[in-house]
Amino acid sequence: MAHRIYYIEDDAGIAEGVAFFLRRKGFEVITAATVAEGKQLLGKGLPSVVLVDWNLPDGSGEGLCRWIREKWPMLPVIFLTVRGDTRDIVNGFQKGADDYLVKPFELEVLYSRICALLRRAGQAGGSYLVCGPVSMDKNQMKVFLNKEEISLGSLEYQLLAALLEHKNHTLTRQKLLELLWDANGNFVNDNTLTVAMKRLREKLSNPACIKTVRGFGYRMEDVEE
Hints:
Domain Response regulatory: 4-118
Organism: Eisenbergiella massiliensis
InterPro entries: CheY-like_superfamily (IPR011006), OmpR/PhoB-type_DNA-bd (IPR001867), Sig_transdc_resp-reg_receiver (IPR001789), WalR-like (IPR039420), WH-like_DNA-bd_sf (IPR036388)
Number of helices: 8
Keywords: DNA-binding, Phosphoprotein, Transcription, Transcription regulation
GO molecular function: phosphorelay response regulator activity; transcription cis-regulatory region binding
């Protein structure tokens, strides 16, 4: 599966040029032009890396980076800036971004920086899973409903992880039983799965993003509010 990159940049020409180059390198690239659009993207699902322009129409890249760090501390962020902003961006870099580049930059340099971040982060984007109001930090083994941490039992946690890792794909009950067996090393029967799903839904306030596919299994997918 290709790594996904979010690029928050209000200059459409620059955004499309960078996106075209990175797509040719095998990345999936989604662009946004404002802080608000960037937050909306991140709320629907996390990428492997976020590229953030320093100056945006509705706020600063530093502010967006702070917001990201509050929610997903290990998600890789690279600042991009024009030369006049370098001093500010170095301060912002020291406050939380993982790297920065000064415009105009060589696209091959950007590519090498992204690859280095992915190696260093151990593909950190895959450690943060989001669907609707539900998010999971696999590094810290924490689950959140909106911004409130939710306490789950081991089986409930593994069940949610399986659904999030296969987001937008229906998992049969048999497949879930196999995944839960592998995760826990213990036998999980069909009735136990039913009980775990019921408890999971209750603890997450019965989110619309967890779907039952009758006679087949379950699916987790984003739902338009």
